[in-house]
Predict the 3D structure of the following.
Amino acid sequence: MGRVLRLVDAMGDVGVLSWQTLRCVFRKRLDKGTLMTQLDQAGVGSWSIATLTALFTGAVLALQFATGLQPYGGSLYTGKLVALGIVRELGPTLTAVLVGGRVGAGFTAEIGSMTVTEQVDAIQALGADPVEKLVVPRVLACLFMLPLLTVLADFVGCFGGMLATVAEVGITPRFYVVQIMDTITVVDLFHGLFKSVFFGYFIAIIGCYMGLRTSGGTEGVGKSTTDSVVAISLSVLVGNFFLTKLFLLVYG
């Protein structure tokens, strides 16, 4: 019972932090320098891990589908399944989990270190708003960069699937691309991008919240960072289910 109450309390605190962040976005002037730094950290610094993961995920999917469909004579249509799996689900979800582990943990460690060394208190003492200075740039960076990383992962994942399908099934790259073009629609692309925006929010707001509530010196920073990675991963995976259900109810 105590864990449930702590979870509910934490969700309430995250909701309050989200409201404060939203108010700062529309009411206060943004620090463009800090925002650009966070855009670089969240996006440019994460593209390699996102693309590498997507490449091999697409290749593994292609191998599995090609092998599974071979007894039914459907191996030629492996590209359709790979594209749908990558664009709708694995592209945004795996990208969010990996970026969340890297970027979200970084947010928690950085802000947590500032919290335990009383730098956050110093910001408040100088009359500035820690939410405006620390949280808003990170939230905006993740909201903007995660959809871009998802699009990149979609392309690379489909490319990895093409390499494996061409080698395993023996079709031409042109045939594979035609299969994808005939299958993927704007709705499918929007499905993945719609979820990636929420995932970006989860990564940033949880990472910042865990950092602001850090206590106990350097040991507390390490614990908060670990808890942040777990919380972000679970939020992405659980949120993926509900967002998929909502999207299917709306678009069928």
